[in-house]
Design brief:
single chain; about 270 residues; mainly alpha; 13 helices; about 0% strand
Length: about 270
């Protein structure tokens, strides 16, 4: 409790916690559908696109978030269209876009500002990189993402499990697939300041996979995933503060530990039933 009290005495940590909790929750909820639809690596690809966009923004002196959000949203849209047309498999399309965007970001950075600490914070995450403006924008957009997810929950559930049946019942499958991609893109951009381009996909993958070890229903997995994501983020932040380790890496390690714990519980249940 003393350690938590010390953390809350620093305004930049309070800002990081406020923004991080909401972004973690958004990532976890969207991650369930992405994992089930085998789009779990889209977060990794879009984070690299975001790195390319922010490198250009930093070099030009523009606001990184205001440039990254629309660019990554467009990338998510085109990525979805490419895979739907069947010309490229989803994993190949993600790998191609990911590598290209990362290369653009590195080249632009090396030719302009060099590998500065500011750009490095986007690659690996930094609590200090989150300004008051970043947190306000993160909170606003995260609330929008959560509201849209809750409002479209039934449609997202339908297209996650059976797109053909959903289309037959009149659900606009293409529209809701695009909506999921856009919401994911926004969440990825918002989480990069905290987690970094290299680690942000963990917020999407780990909570969903962990919840699936114990729960089988979609609603159960969604609720458990959201709770676990927020709890692991907070625990990771406390660990980061106490041990002076990078915040993003600490959050990932906590998620890994919880995943292993839940996997062990699931295995014990299986043996007991057997």
């Amino acid at each position: 409790m003393r350690l938590i009290g010390e953390m809350l005495s620093y305004p930049f940590l309070v800002r990081a916690l406020a923004g991080g909790v909401l972004v973690s929750l958004c990532a976890a909820l969207l991650g369930v559908s992405l994992v089930l639809k085998r789009y779990s690596m889209i977060g990794d690809g879009l984070s690299h696109v975001s790195f390319g966009a922010l490198s250009i923004a930093v070099a030009a002196g523009w606001s990184p978030l205001s440039i990254s959000v629309p660019v990554v949203t467009l990338a998510a849209f085109f990525l979805l269209r490419i895979t739907e047309n069947g010309k490229l498999k989803s994993d190949a399309a993600i790998a191609m876009i990911s590598a290209s965007a990362l290369a653009v970001g590195i080249v632009v950075t090396s030719l302009t500002t060099g590998m500065t600490t500011d750009v490095g914070s986007y690659m690996f995450g930094s609590i200090l990189a989150m300004s008051r403006q970043d947190v306000c924008l993160s909170v606003l957009l995260s609330v929008v993402v959560l509201c849209l997810y809750v409002f479209c929950y039934n449609k997202i559930f339908a297209i996650t499990f059976d797109e053909s049946f959903a289309r037959a019942t009149g659900v606009r499958v293409g529209f809701y697939n695009i909506l999921i991609a856009v919401l994911t893109a926004v969440t990825i951009v918002l989480g990069m300041r905290m987690m970094g381009a290299m680690l942000i996909s963990s917020l999407i993958i780990f909570p969903a996979l962990t919840a699936m070890q114990v729960f089988k229903s979609f609603r159960g997995v969604v609720v458990c995933s959201g709770i676990l994501s927020v709890a692991c983020f907070l625990a990771g932040m406390v660990l980061s503060y106490g041990l002076s380790t990078p915040a993003g890496a600490s959050v990932v390690l906590v998620n890994l530990a919880v995943f292993l714990l839940f996997a062990g519980i699931a295995r014990l249940k299986h043996f007991n039933i057997g």
